[in-house]
Structure formats: C-alpha cells, structure tokens
Design brief:
202 residues; mainly beta; Immunoglobulin-like; 9% helix
C-alpha cells in the first residue's frame, strides 16, 4: 500500500474559458517566434552603448530585446552609484515617459509610438485601439560592479510593421545619450514572420 493512496481527491472545478487578449497586450502565448536579423547598435560611445540584441517576431507584433551598458570613467564612488541607480531604469509613471530611457518607433507611414508602462486600456477603449502601440514589458535582469553596469529591457510593438522600414528611436538624457536610431528592415521582419510556428494544430 502506498503512502499516497489515502490522500483525499481534489474537488473538480469548472473550466473557465479565458477571454482573448488584444494584440497590443503582448506576444501570443501559443506561438514560437521567428527571429529577425535586425540587431545592431542604437547608440555607441566610449562610455555607453545601447544595443538591439534581437527581435522576436510573432503573428501580431514583435518583441524588441534591448541591452544597455555603461562604463565607469573618472566618477567618484558616489557619482558612480548614482549612474548605476539611473541605469536600472526603474519603472516610472506610464503618463510621464520623458524620464529615464525614452524609447519610440517611427513607422514608414508617419505614425509613431512612445513606450509606456501600461497598454492603451488605461487611457481609452481597448476595442478602438488601432496602433501602433509600444509597451514596456519589463527588464530581463542585469549586473553591475565598480567598473560597469549592464541591464536589459523588453518592448512589445503592435501591430507588426511590415509595410516599410521602421525607425527605433532612443534617448537618455541622464546618461548623456542623444536621440539616436536604428532602422528595422520591413523585409527582414516579414521574413521572420514566415518562420513563426503555432504550438497547437487546430
């Protein structure tokens, strides 16, 4: 007789269908993305770099994976601690985006979006959102010591811009980074879209 034979059975619970998430909310949970070969330096100086590490393309949008690294110069210990704290880019207000790292996109048709912490549902009817929407999905971690600080951030862009190239634009006043950009090729995004795979067959 097993020790576990007499354990009480868990009561069954009714299955609750989950409402579909709007496209701007984030990546679909049932897809393996295609990887777009559009990474590169958004900004590079002797002191700091901002890198687009990779772009994960889904059927509805794309996930931008950014890395920033700051190298210590002649700063005092206190000055360096302040730089490291700034480099964390902790979440600010979703209304005041003009603090810390500013990220935006400019589409080929003239539309643009600036990254916010919350999606459009916080400010408007979610059913009427046409995009583009750029949402901060949070960081993926980081590290720092007495010589450098390096952190990551992820941004969801919806819908997927395949009608013309898109400019990824960044600015970080507190760290001395002027407005800088990297062009995302529509053709490379479209190619990656062709490599998206669904988890489940209908």
């Amino acid at each position: 007789m097993s020790l576990f034979d007499d354990l009480p059975q868990q009561p069954s619970r009714p299955r609750e269908p989950q409402p579909p998430q709007p496209g701007w909310f984030g990546p679909p949970s049932d897809e393996m993305p295609g990887i777009a070969r559009v990474g590169g330096f958004v900004f590079k100086s002797q002191r700091m770099v901002l890198v687009l590490k990779l772009v994960e393309v889904f059927s509805t949008g794309c996930l931008l994976d950014l890395v920033w690294s700051v190298r210590r110069g002649s700063e005092s210990d206190q000055e360096w601690r302040e730089i490291v704290e700034e480099s964390y880019n902790n979440s600010r207000s979703s209304i005041d985006t003009r603090t810390g790292l500013e990220i935006g996109v400019a589409l080929a048709d003239g539309r643009k979006a600036v990254a916010a912490i919350h999606g459009p549902s916080a400010f408007e009817d979610a059913d009427d959102v046409t995009g583009p929407v750029l949402t901060t999905l949070g960081g993926g971690g980081g590290s720092n010591n007495s010589e450098f600080a390096q952190f990551t951030g992820r941004y969801w862009l919806w819908p997927l811009p395949v009608e013309g190239d898109t400019a990824l634009v960044a600015k970080w006043d507190a760290l001395g980074m002027p407005e800088s950009l990297l062009v995302l090729s529509a053709q490379q995004l479209a190619d990656a879209l062709g490599r998206v795979q669904k988890y489940w067959s209908e």
